[in-house]
Please model this.
Amino acid sequence: MNDYGQPEIDVKNEYDPFDLPFLRTDDRGRIWNGEFDVTESPRRLLGVPTGEEDIKITDYLVHRPLPKELLKWQVTPNYHPDSLDMDVWYEDLLEFSYDGVWIDGEYFNPFFVYWMNIFVFPVPIMGSDGKPTTDFETSFAAYSNIDRYFFDYCWKAELTRQDIAIMGGRGVGKSYMINCIIDREFRLYEKSWSLVSSTNEETTSEAWSKIEQGIEAIEKQHPALKYKLITDSHIKKLSGENIELPDGTSEKSGHLSLIEKITYGKNGGKTRGKRPTKQLIEEFAAFPPSHQKGSLGACIGESRGSWYVQTSLKKCTVMYSGTGGTVENDEAEGIFTQPEVNEILPTNDWGETTGFFCPTHVKYAGTWEETGCPDIALATSLVNIRREKAKANPSSYLTLLQEFPMTVREVFTKKGTNLFNQDKIASQRINIIQGGDNTPKPGNGFLNWRRSPTGKIIGVEWDATPHGDVSILEHPHWLTEAANENEKSPIDGLYVGGCDSIDQGTSDSSYATNNKKGSELAILIKKRVLDGGYFRTTSNLYVAKYNKRSSNVRDDWDNALKLSYYFNAEVNIEYTKIGIVSHFRDNKMYHMLKKRPTINLTSGDPTKNTQLIGTTAGGTIIDHQDMKVASYIDSFYDQIWFMDILDQLQNYNRDDRTKFDMVIAMGLCELADEDLMGKVAGIQAPKESNRLKAFGYYTDPITNYKKYGVIPNQEDRRDEMTQILKSEADKFNKHGGVQWIDMTDPKNPVVNY
Model:
């Protein structure tokens, strides 16, 4: 037996010549996918005849030739169209298209049978001038294991009354595969009702055109499957015929199956009153953002009633289809990456739970063999060659990632249209997406108060956990590495914060009653540019964030307070939300709130109105904040290592800021940093003066040894501590780059430079 528990049999490996990373192979070429020996079982039972079977992509990425018997209906026999033999031949085809077929102990589901034997593509006939004519020939799909996997996925969803969602790159054939399901619904089931829908007329018309082309091609290939149509327009196709009655009226009779085109536009209620059995939502990621009319969430919400009978019996299978490069809204990713929450059949093929994701490299044109197995090595190399050529232009490179994605994250990478430099934002997104082990990675955790026996706050402790609400890229610097934690001195002026606060939690009655989605509290901490060159290498770096609306809003205020205290950072708040001010004051941290920036003072005189806190939300101030953020992106875009901040910067809408809490917090932070321009780092400023000299033991700030004598106060130590600051900054800058904490394993955090 080998290391995988497989027998030592000298069998040439014909099933995994590309050493797929998700299939383990031994030195004899035996393949093990975690459950069974693929080498010995190249035609293991697949399919989902009952809906209970698990399906996973590793079972399909092997050479698995189709039995010839399955494809026998691709060639129409030369029987007379009206003969009994032809009737029997079509009866068999339709039976297997209804129920599927078992061949040699292997099940082929009805969708796949229909795909391989009935659904055909129109291929234009070329004229003598070398240009395509209006005439066409029909062609069956070339067999691909990935196609079979997709139809098994769809069939399982059908049996379990779940919806489907498919995302992938261009050219993987997802539109035609879904059209196959719609055509089957239309052709095989009486009184079925399929809706072809999308956000705009262009997208819906394109999907509808493929439906029409498919219908015409199928009926050319199989004339016996052609139906009479009562309605045949560019928005509706209804099978059947009108029967004249003796009283001179008429009624619809026959098959009465319907396909209808719906364009939502700004009206999410377009499907009210309809009772579809299938609904395609084409390019679901291209719907408007959630804050606009006709958003994806609004359309789904208003359509949901038409998918059920008596509110509980699900009658309709919804098919979400999307292409990388069309992502416009902020809801599609949530739907696709949280499938079970959204009644979508989940998969777990690429290390995360999603809908059905078809990466470019598993179905790249011309890179799969007759057995259906993709040549992943070849496809990957071809994709990477294209990517290398496009890297010179970040915008072009981003477009290539979007349209030919190899990961789910690449699918949902998008370009914005606001005043911020989208090429630079895209470039940094690429840096994060494709960065290796040396890419800075924020760690998640919780900040907990450290208190004295009397309950007095004496510090903050970091509790690392992947599920924590606080994200920190770089933990705060201190002036000493004292053995006693209480003797460490925070750096004054190195960090500054910006906070877009809230006044209600999700459990507050008025918030719940109004059913608001609302904004969230957002606080960002930034390491500043400092005179004197201290920490110059990593200045202008956003090092920490918190972004959430909790059940109890005081929990959010407390996290903002902890971050401020932890980094010794003055925080500039938006003064429209003032509940947080009381929280800081109640915890004797009022001094951590930034005084109103000079630019926001009516007089423009920093010597006046010094007791005012925070920044007002007037139009000119907001404009100034946005320009400060834009300026930061222009100069320091490659210092943003939080992907969700980049997401908000990409999607930011000046006219509706409720969904962009971190952009607001960033603007407040930049405004505060501007106001502090010229302030240099130093030791913590003394909170009160010491009039008498004290004698006793103290810790020397340079040697860390105990000494006896006059205990230096903060002012006496300032020069000494400044030298320590310079020394520590120089030591840190020698590393070059960001000192970040990789919390991938919270029990063993790794400090990287």
Observations:
- The longest helix spans residues 201-221.
- The radius of gyration is 32 Å.
